[in-house]
Design goal:
Helix content is about 30%, strand content about 30%. A five-stranded antiparallel sheet has the order 1-2-3-4-5. The protein is of the alpha+beta class and about 90 residues long.
């Protein structure tokens, strides 16, 4: 489970050999959610509204990098860290 970014107590990560559609996972305290990269909507789970807003703001800025990591993890198992929000 590579952590690809983290900020304000939020961890953003992807799993190796993940299923489609492309998505990432966000964790904040006891809350967890899967976020679809294309639409930035919650596929599964829940985050507090303020935290979800920060995560989607960050993801909007880094959509291209998220998709690159998604494809790279599936093909080679490699990934690059993504700059945090702030």
């Amino acid at each position: 489970m590579p952590i690809i970014s983290g900020f304000l107590g939020i961890e953003i990560f992807m799993y190796f050999n993940e299923h489609n559609p492309p998505h990432f996972h966000a964790k904040y305290n006891e809350f967890r959610a899967e976020i679809l990269i294309e639409t930035l909507s919650v596929k599964e789970g829940r985050l507090p509204p303020r935290i979800l807003g920060l995560v989607t703001e960050w993801a909007e800025l880094h959509k291209k990098e998220l998709l690159e990591n998604w494809n790279s993890l599936k093909k080679t198992g490699e990934f690059k860290k993504i700059k945090p929000l702030i």
